[in-house]
Amino acid sequence: RRKQNFIGLPIPGSGNGVLTSTSSSFGLSLDVSWELDLWNRLGSGASAALADVQAARADHRGARLSLAGQTAKTWFAAVEARRQVELSEATVENLKTSSEVVRERYRRGLRHALDLRRTLSDLAGAEAVLQQRRLVLDGTRRRLEVLLGRYPAAALSPGLNLPELPEAIPAGLPAELVSRRPDLMAAERRLAASYSRYTQAKRALYPRISLTGSAGTSSRDLENLLNGDFSVWNLAGNILQPLFQGGRIRGGIQLAASQSEQAVSAYVQSVLSACAEVETALAAESLLAKRQAALETATEQALAARRLAEDRYAGGLVDLNTMLDAQRGAYASESQLIAVRRQRLENRVNLHLALGGGFAGPRRTASTTLTTPTEGL
Length: 377
What we know:
By secondary structure, the protein is mainly α. The chain has two domains: 1-36 and 208-241, Outer membrane efflux proteins (OEP); 37-207 and 242-355, Outer membrane efflux proteins (OEP) (Up-down Bundle), CATH 1.20.1600. 60% of the residues lie in helices and 12% in strands. It has five helices and five strands. The strands form two sheets. Strands 3-4-5 form a three-stranded antiparallel β-sheet, with no helix packed on it. A two-stranded antiparallel sheet has the order 1-2. Helix 1 (41-107) runs antiparallel to helix 3 (182-203) and helix 1 (41-107) runs antiparallel to helix 5.
């Protein structure tokens, strides 16, 4: 609606000499503006955004894989802790039996008080170790419950037996397996995003061509607002060339180039760290297997030596030191054997994490080809 006042010579019928004119018009329009991406500046920005999304997805997969690995290793630790508690309980019971034998021989005057004191000292030490291992079991149970999303009440029973190792590691693992690692995929996508932003920053120096258009209707009558006979339209174009920016655009290019260089360094470091983790896990696989085999033999011999020493001490054929040394050796060997079995399982989990999965071929999810930003850096 538009209102106009005309002031001038007296006009008949105007009363006070002021003539007022009021008119109404109605319009409906749609305005559209777009930029022609001749230099792929906008396309580079879209590519960077897509790469950022892919990196975020890879980070999410990495977090899930890490959580699964941490849960498995904590469960193995809980099983080991429970086995260590059982071993300590058996050790305490065995030392109680030995101390009673020594006490009886002391009463009969067959042993000195020193022997009795030593057995009682070993018994008290074993009970202290038992409480320490119970403390470890309690803490491990609570950590496992937290990882499983439960309240840490230390009520979870992890079982008594560690699982056997799955399939053996095949010889000649392809290096491409490492490319499945989510952290490497995320680093690769961030590198691609940084290069796209570098390209976008360089394209900001080029002129921008934009088109603006509008279409609609205009009428004095509301009922004609949707009538095509009253349509109006407009189309315009313009070219913008950045001239005086105070160095802002070139500063943005330098910043993007620096960020690309940092992304390259981060990616290379991630690859080297991944290779180091794989090599470490593969070396540990062989060394831990040999250690377990040696400890199995040592435990078998130590248990036999303990039984023989206890029988001979009861018959007065060996002294107390021989029996106590045999008992300590047997307990230590059993404890180390339990620990190395857990270590082998934990190392296998570490190998799977280092490879980003099992021993099957790689399966890439980031389909965008990586281009290293070297030109212009």
